[in-house]
Amino acid sequence: MSLTKKIKEFALDIGYSKVGIIPADSFSDYLADISNRSEMYSFFLKGASRAADPRSQMPTAKSIITTVYDYSQKNFPQELTDKIARIYQARCYNAPPDRIHGARPQLLRRFLENAGCEVGIGTIVPERIAAAKAGIVNFGRNNFAYANGIGSFIYLTSFLVDQELEYDAPTLEVGCPEGCRACIKACPTQAIYEPQKLNPLRCIAYNNFFRQDEMPGGSFVPYDIREKIGTKIHGCDICQEVCPRNRKKVTAQKADDEYLTQIAKDYTLTNFLHMTDDFYQTRVQPLMHNYIKHKKYFQRNAAIALGNLADPAAIPDLALAMADTEELVREYAAWALGKIGSNPAKQVLEVSLASEVSPAVQREITAALLAM
After folding, report:
1. One domain for residues 13 and 150
2. What is the mean pLDDT of the chain?
3. Which of 63, 66, 242, 367 could form a disulfide bond with 158, CB atoms 3.0-4.6 angstroms apart?
4. Three-state SS for 109?
5. Is pLDDT larger for residue 290 or for residue 268?
6. Percent of the chain residues topping a pLDDT of 90
7. What is the mean pLDDT of residues 63-69?
8. What is the average per-residue pLDDT within 134-144?
9. Is residue 297 in some structural domain?
10. Are 168 and 22 in contact (CB under 8 A)?
11. Rounded average pLDDT over 51-67
12. With contact defined as beta carbons under 8 Å apart, do 348 and 322 qualify?
């Protein structure tokens, strides 16, 4: 049996859904596309440049082994999908090595090394394009990759190796129904501005994750985006949920994920707003350990969600948040109280303004009061 066949069979045996292999050539078209939209992707240009050139990361690289994992094999509780994208609920996105989905790539890496391959460490490639070049996915107009028989609820992982292997034929094509624009119409923030073109700065996920103090643009979530985020606090699946190519997967009867069922009751917006260290460690970290490393951004996102719900029952919790030690939390709690807009909310804002020392929070309180 050839090494290529052994690799593919082992990958399928340990739970990957599809495997493809391509030469470790550069992805110049990918980099050109990102560079041509640099005003949208300035935060990512350095990473894109690195990903586009595999051999700059591993000079001995000859092949890219790319894999698909179907993470939608079990049911996701509605009370979680209202707030958290499915890929994070599935606990497979860059999972740590001591978790089941982190162990899988380690098993494949060990198999490759035992087979005599040098395997790149810390390498990255444009996963969706690599998988399409390897013939295991095609593209959707929503910018996601789709695997035949699965849909777009997939996680892609690639490995650079120093061996020449047998290469697969590409599927660099859009597989969507002719004329379908369901994802473009459904995107609340109009982040998908034309087929296969996304402005990440308007994407709900970007505004959840990357609006942080140390990022370009800082932690400020634009007002027009806030109002369209709804109750999403960590990622968004709307453009995948409405896609006819995913309908069968979304509506299929599947077994519950018992872990998610057990923890879902704790995933209230108020628990996120008043996040304790224990909640962060036992509820947030197992699912959402990738992008947000500070509790205050989860708290901010929860405040936005509560503001969008505009439920007066949240006023006492937002009043407590107005006394939070984090300026960012107070700022967005003030915005949320302004969105609720009742007399009790107004009273909380007026009392808070009298003692608030942060100019940013003072501005948000004043704006909220003026809008009432």
Report:
1. yes
2. 97
3. 66
4. helix
5. 268
6. 97
7. 98
8. 98
9. yes
10. yes
11. 98
12. yes
Q: CATH no. for residue 362?
A: 1.25.10.10
Place of tokens 């990957």: 16
Q: What is the CA radius of gyration of the chain?
A: 22
Asked if residue 191 is part of any domain, the answer here is no
User: Does this model's pTM top 0.85?
Assistant: yes
- The answer to whether position 283 is within a domain reads yes
The DSSP annotation for 123-140 comes to ----HHHHHHHTTS-EE-
Tell which residue, 15, 95, 79, has the closest CA to residue 256: 79
Distances (CA, A) of 243 to 79, 127, 143, 146, 299: 21, 21, 12, 11, 31
Chain position carrying tokens 């996920």: 205
Q: Coil, helix or strand for 18?
A: strand
Amino acid at the residue 115: A
pLDDT at 217 over 90: no
Tell me if 369 sits within 8 A of 352, measured CB to CB: no
Name the more confident of 54 and 293. 54
Instruction: Confirm if 187 and 239 have CB atoms less than 8 A apart.
Output: yes
pLDDT of residue 345: 97
